[in-house]
């Protein structure tokens, strides 16, 4: 009998190799998001409403799940071959935003497709992971010690970061830099090089401060002293703290949060949705959601470490790191631990491009799991 290896498995057979536990966990977190968006749409503390947020979010999630499964069964070597093309498309879209992007809430971050508002900076998060993983796959740890090897990936990170800063979107820029830095580290870049960059970054803070927009400076100053302007710049974070504190241990109950339902809490369907959940379900509800996120992180790390290819390991770790940054920055932001930077809570906050991008990233993670036994040579590989 002929031995069947991973190269002989058909796309339909690959569906049965999908990590269904991971899919269930993603769906469970998304359902919490649907419930919170249903609650956010209630009027004057009455019954919730599927419109305008929960229904659209559920529809996007259904589309995203199908997309995730399709991404997961495509041969991982095809994704490796297309990594630079996907990165180039993301970069072109960022240039398109700079040229003809639509403006919303004082920022130029979207391309209006009439039926959908596309945010290319979200797409770049996954595109960057693929491109850097493709680049570092070809080099050994000893070769990466050569500083000249790092010139190209540094340019690959710098170009989109500069374009995103022009929108302006400081939060996404920082996430892109940190996520890319993790891939650099996992690929074998020495710690002293990171230390050197950090020292240079700290030394450039006085210069960087002059290039920040006035509202970005105000956010940092408000973070240091939110009580200095409680009805202005400090309003968001102070209301967030009040709402979270009022939830207590078990919360006020579903659709019973006073700060959120009486519209004291701003952006409750997007950036501050964790605050609304903490008010309605208390500390216990917040811990449960964070535990689900932690379990998802463990899944991602486990899948990445089991891959037999360097490309698969870097993609898995890159996606997992990006997702974890989403969670950490959003929750730390609404707690007042870091300045407000406008980062959504993945799978929970309302947002089309963010939802689809997160699911595309998990599709790549699932792809690494499905193709974990495929070995990709380091040299002389250009596809199938």
Descriptive notes:
The protein is mostly helical. Helices cover 65% and strands 3% of the residues. It has 16 helices and 3 strands. The protein has helices spanning 11-15, 20-40, 54-73, 76-100, 120-137, 141-144, 151-165, 170-187, 191-203, 205-211, 214-224, 235-246, 258-261, 273-305, 310-335, 352-370; strands at 102-104, 107-112, 117-118. The chain has a 3-stranded antiparallel sheet with strand order 1-2-3, covered by helices on one side. α2 runs antiparallel to α14 (273-305) and α4 runs parallel beside α7 (151-165). The longest helix has 33 residues, at 273-305. It is globular, with a radius of gyration of 21 Å. The model has no long low-confidence stretch (mean pLDDT 84).
List keywords for this structure.
globular; 3-stranded antiparallel sheet; 384 residues; 3% strand; mainly alpha
Ordered list of secondary-structure elements with their pairings:
Blueprint (H helix, E strand, L loop, with lengths): L10 H5 L4 H21 L13 H20 L2 H25 L1 E3 L2 E6 L4 E2 L1 H18 L3 H4 L6 H15 L4 H18 L3 H13 L1 H7 L2 H11 L10 H12 L11 H4 L11 H33 L4 H26 L16 H19 L14
Antiparallel strand pairs: 1-2, 2-3
Order of helices and strands: HHHHEEEHHHHHHHHHHHH
Counting DSSP H or I runs of 4 or more residues, the number of helices is 16
Shape: globular
Q: In what order do the strands lie side by side in the largest sheet?
A: 1-2-3
């Amino acid at each position: 009998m002929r031995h069947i290896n991973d190269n002989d498995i058909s796309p339909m057979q690959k569906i049965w190799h999908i990590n269904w536990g991971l899919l269930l966990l993603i769906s469970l977190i998304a359902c919490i998001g649907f419930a919170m968006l249903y609650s956010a749409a209630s009027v004057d503390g009455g019954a919730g409403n599927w419109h305008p947020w929960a229904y659209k979010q559920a529809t996007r999630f259904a589309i995203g799940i199908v997309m995730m499964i399709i991404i997961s069964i495509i041969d991982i070597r095809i994704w490796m071959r297309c990594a630079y093309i996907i990165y180039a498309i993301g970069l072109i879209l960022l240039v398109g935003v700079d040229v003809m992007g639509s403006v919303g809430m004082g920022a130029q971050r979207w391309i209006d497709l009439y039926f959908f508002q596309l945010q290319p900076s979200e797409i770049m998060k996954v595109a960057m992971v693929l491109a850097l993983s493709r680049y570092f796959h070809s080099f050994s740890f000893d070769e990466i010690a050569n500083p000249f090897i790092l010139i190209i990936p540094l340019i690959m990170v710098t170009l989109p970061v500069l374009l995103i800063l022009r929108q302006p979107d400081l939060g996404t820029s920082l996430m892109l830099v940190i996520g890319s830095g993790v891939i650099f580290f996992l690929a074998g870049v020495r710690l002293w090089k990171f230390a050197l960059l950090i020292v240079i970054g700290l030394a450039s803070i006085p210069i960087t401060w002059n290039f920040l927009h006035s509202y970005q400076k105000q956010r940092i100053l408000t973070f240091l002293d939110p009580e200095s302007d409680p009805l202005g710049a400090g309003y968001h974070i102070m209301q967030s703290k009040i709402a979270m504190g009022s939830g207590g241990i078990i919360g006020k109950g579903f659709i019973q949060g006073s700060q959120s339902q009486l519209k004291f809490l701003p952006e409750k369907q997007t950036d501050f949705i964790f605050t609304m959940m903490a008010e309605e379900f208390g500390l216990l509800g917040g811990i449960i959601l964070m535990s689900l996120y932690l379990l998802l992180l463990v899944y991602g790390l486990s899948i990445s470490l089991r891959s037999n290819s360097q490309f698969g390991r870097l993609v898995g770790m890159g996606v997992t790191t990006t997702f974890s940054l989403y969670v950490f920055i959003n929750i730390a932001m609404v707690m007042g631990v870091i300045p407000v930077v406008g980062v959504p809570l993945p799978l929970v906050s309302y947002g089309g491009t963010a939802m689809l991008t997160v699911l595309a990233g998990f599709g790549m993670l699932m792809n690494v799991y499905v193709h974990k036994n495929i070995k990709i040579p380091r040299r002389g590989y250009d596809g199938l």
